Write the structure tokens for this entry.
Amino acid sequence: MDRLSSAFASGEIVSDLNHFTLDFEKPVRDLEIQIKELKEASARPELDISREIKALEKKVNTLIQEIYENLSPWERVQLSRHPNRPHAVDFIADLIEDFHEVKGDRRFANDPAVIAGFGYFGKQRVAIVGIEKGRKTKEKVHHNFGMPRPEGYRKALRVMKMAGSFGIPIITFVDTPGAYPGIGAEERGQSQAIAENLAELFDVQSPIISLVVGEGGSGGALGIAIADRVLMMEYSIYSVISPESCASILWADPKKAETAANALQLGPDKAVELKVADGIVPEPPGGAHKDQKRAMELVRKSLEKELKDLLKLPTKALLDARFKKFREMGNQTIIEIKES
């Protein structure tokens, strides 16, 4: 991970994205610019505009609360894809010490869309698997826009099975619109690779925690998210298909993605209600991209709690509970349909 780590440590990957603003964030951004200008002006001793600054800061906080409590499904999709949201490499750099990356699937190649390896979460040895999208154009191309190929899933399984052999807990960071649908990926067994992961992960004899940090799209996400605890960040999404793909299939028009997003119920509240996810990790006001340091603290706290609880379980109880968890998904929905 030398090149990747140094790029993020130097800030070169995110430096020109710091001012990216979504349409619904613009009112907040405009006020923040005004506050910044006023603070610069207040540096002059003859001016006392502290009252005006405090009033604007209060207005910003109120506006943020109003906007983010009333996000539409499509705005939530946009937020989950915000280029300044923490990516897998950020979580690894901030939360994992002494990380050593494992590359290749021992069959075909190394897939840069999937970053996998071993390190320490606090004092606990852990295995890490994360899907990385990249930020700048060159990084996005290198990581295939966060769409893993078969070799990525095989690399992930290789690392997770190795961790299971030694009882090492596993943490996965999910952020993908879906697995890569290209001809080469299909020729090399994309569906088989994902299916193998789904089957094999039920038998991995280590605690598994999966965190959806941005997008959790289709089998591309599920391929590394068969876990004892599936957590979602507050402004992440998790769905059987991306809104664009759904719109393309239903209406032959990807421009109807917003309509599809309204129907798909992508947010974490619904995922928890349906027992697809087990918990929601709160984000700072305005989203993780507004205060990455605070976001990392909240994620660390959630992972520590879940890992502590899972490490108490005997292996058999852990595996039985994992199987039962996924076996029961959707049962409540079926019952409700029959009753109606």
Observations:
- The chain has a mean pLDDT of 87.
- The first helix runs from residue 2 to 10.
- The first strand starts at residue 97 and ends at 102.
